[in-house]
Amino acid sequence: MRNSPPGSPTAPDARPALAWLRLLVEWGADEALAESAIDRRLSGPAARSVPPPPGPIPTALPAPALGTPAQRAEAAAASCHDLDALQRAMEGFDDFGLRQAASHTVRVSLGTRARLIVVGETADEDEDRSGEPFAGRAGTGLDRMLGAIGLSRDDCALMAGIAWRPPGGRPPAGVELATCAPFLRRRLVLAARQIVARGGPVAAGHGTGGTDAVRVPALLLGKLPLRLLLADADVASGPRGAARRLDIDAGDGVTVDATALTHPSMLAAQPRLRRPAWHGLLALRARLDSAPDGPITNL
């Protein structure tokens, strides 16, 4: 049977179908999902989803550190038996805010002729940037102070009182002082032992606890080293600007004979403090000259 041409009286009218399709489009039914309906009753059982393969077993998180930061610092410092090991322990003391914020852990600089320990204050911007003690302007003041009594950096073991610069250069908080004190004390002890082991000329005398001890002189510049060490050190205080003395038992018959003086930056700003500081330097030089190996000859 031949199809009737469009427009003939017997051809089917497509307009209702087009109108229906147009209505579906207006209602949003504008996608053809399949050419024919699917009878779901005739299809096979639904495929079961395959669970993904098990992933790696998560590693257990490390147990939180026990004790206060100061207690952890005490344990870390006590476990170190030389300056290099202590430096690594301090660099790895990551759960401490000052350590995390600082650019460097300022190291101990041990001169080839070291016979005197010099301790500064909190690491400043120059020290934080370089990792070296007494860098920048603080170092210039120290060089002048040492030069006045015929010494140089090569005669010293240099270290910062606090090896990390607080953010923005703010003063260290109380908990930070308590945490840094064990590190400074251990640095003093290990530096003194290393000076003695290297045969540095030191003064022999009566040590702590009523026993003879080898005495290694130390120079504490500014108030901070005293604040860190006063908790268990015997200090003879004097008038403002005058030298103050304290002994620190380094063990093995070694005592750190420390003299606290005004920091060079304060001497530049307050001339009235220079005279007592000068007398303290002269007394320090006299103790160095009384060492068993005789006076220093590099004047």
Folded structure, characterized:
The chain has ten helices and eight strands. Helix 2 (69-78) runs parallel beside helix 7. Strands 1, 2, 3, 4, 5, 6, 7 and 8 form an eight-stranded mixed beta sheet that branches. With 299 residues, it is α/β, with parallel strands linked by helices. The radius of gyration is 39 Å and the shape is elongated. It has a single domain (69-289), classed as 3-Layer(aba) Sandwich (Uracil-DNA Glycosylase, subunit E). The chain has helices spanning 15-27, 69-78, 83-91, 97-101, 125-130, 136-148, 174-197, 224-229, 264-269, 274-289, and strands at residues 109-110, 116-119, 156-159, 203-206, 212-221, 235-236, 244-251, 254-261. Its EC number is 2.7.7.7. Keywords: 4Fe-4S, DNA damage, DNA repair, Hydrolase, Iron, Iron-sulfur, Metal-binding, Nucleotidyltransferase, Transferase. This is DNA polymerase.
Task: Write a concise synopsis of the structure shown.
Its EC number is 2.7.7.7. By secondary structure, the protein is of the alpha/beta class. The chain is built from ten helices and eight strands.
Topology (elements, then pairings):
Elements (H helix, E strand, L loop, with lengths): L14 H13 L41 H10 L4 H9 L5 H5 L7 E2 L5 E4 L5 H6 L5 H13 L7 E4 L14 H24 L5 E4 L5 E10 L2 H6 L5 E2 L7 E8 L2 E8 L2 H6 L4 H16 L10
Helix pairs in contact: 2-7
